[in-house]
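Help needed: design a sequence for this.
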């Protein structure tokens, strides 16, 4: 019964209790040729990124938005109806800087990169942070279901190309004043001349052309794994992230020799089709669970 979560005490002599399911998951990943990864928002939290609280990182970066607009956390800022593109970009450039361009890789992401080193992979994530790319995973094989702070798009949706934000972010962070970015730094659509905004799920969100590239990569991955040993791993997927689980479940039900590991998250019991291949790691500390698998 892979799903059993009795904690073993055999690690007790070293001073910790090891969930035997972590050992089982570790062996599955070691034996796998390829991994299909689904990541939810709990992984952001485990890395120390809090979208819903006014923690130190938020207050250090967004004190001006807090006092001028009453914005209390990252999530409120992302959905705030800023009246001008200048203010929108003042917030979003700081967001992109904090999450990606000025960020150092977290321990958890570095460990995931080690865990999946030398394996074929594809990653589906609801995170907008770009942290898989930050530790070197191929952007074409990281499908971000809610967009990310790395790309921008035409707000009119006149075409669906996603453009990298690149160096623009740092210029905006440095040159903004009292929540305003100088007009000359604001990006315009090269096709219609309209305003551009970050490609984040919400009012202006378009499925970009890079999604087509990623879909091709996913199909190609799907073809390659047919005769390979596949481990499917979801990390921190909860009720709000259910979309990131769908492709994993689809592959799990069709590729009947693939094992399915769930680290944290809200899936307590597996559907009957994959019950005998399901390993549940109930440790709420995702960072520790990943570290123990190395
Ligand atoms: Zn346009």
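Sure. Designed sequence:
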């Amino acid at each position: 019964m892979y799903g059993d979560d009795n904690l073993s005490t055999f690690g007790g002599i070293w001073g910790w209790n090891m969930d035997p399911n972590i050992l089982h998951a570790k062996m599955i990943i070691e034996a796998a040729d390829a991994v299909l990864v689904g990541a939810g928002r709990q992984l952001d939290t485990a890395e120390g990124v809090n979208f819903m609280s006014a923690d130190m990182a938020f207050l250090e970066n967004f004190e001006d938005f807090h006092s001028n607009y009453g914005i209390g956390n990252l999530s409120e800022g992302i959905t705030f109806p800023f009246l001008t593109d200048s203010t929108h970009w003042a917030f979003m450039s700081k967001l992109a800087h904090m999450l990606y361009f000025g960020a150092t890789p977290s321990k958890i992401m570095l460990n995931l990169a080690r865990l999946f080193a030398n394996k074929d992979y594809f990653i589906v994530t609801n995170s907008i942070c770009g942290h898989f790319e930050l530790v070197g995973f191929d952007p074409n094989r990281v499908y971000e279901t809610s967009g990310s702070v790395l790309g921008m798009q035409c707000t009119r949706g006149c075409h669906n190309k996603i453009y990298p934000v690149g160096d623009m972010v740092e210029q905006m962070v440095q040159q903004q004043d009292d929540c305003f970015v100088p007009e000359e730094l604001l990006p315009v659509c090269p096709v219609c001349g309209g305003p551009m905004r970050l490609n984040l799920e919400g009012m202006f969100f378009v499925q970009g052309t890079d999604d087509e590239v990623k879909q091709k990569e996913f199909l190609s991955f799907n073809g390659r794994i047919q005769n390979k040993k596949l481990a499917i791993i979801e990390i921190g997927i909860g009720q709000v992230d259910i979309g990131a689980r769908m492709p994993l479940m689809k592959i799990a039900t069709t590729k009947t020799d693939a094992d399915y590991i769930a680290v944290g998250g809200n899936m307590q019991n597996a559907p009957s089709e994959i019950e005998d291949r399901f390993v549940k790691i109930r440790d709420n500390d995702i960072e520790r669970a990943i570290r123990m698998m190395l």
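Residues 1-15 have pLDDT under 50 and may be disordered.
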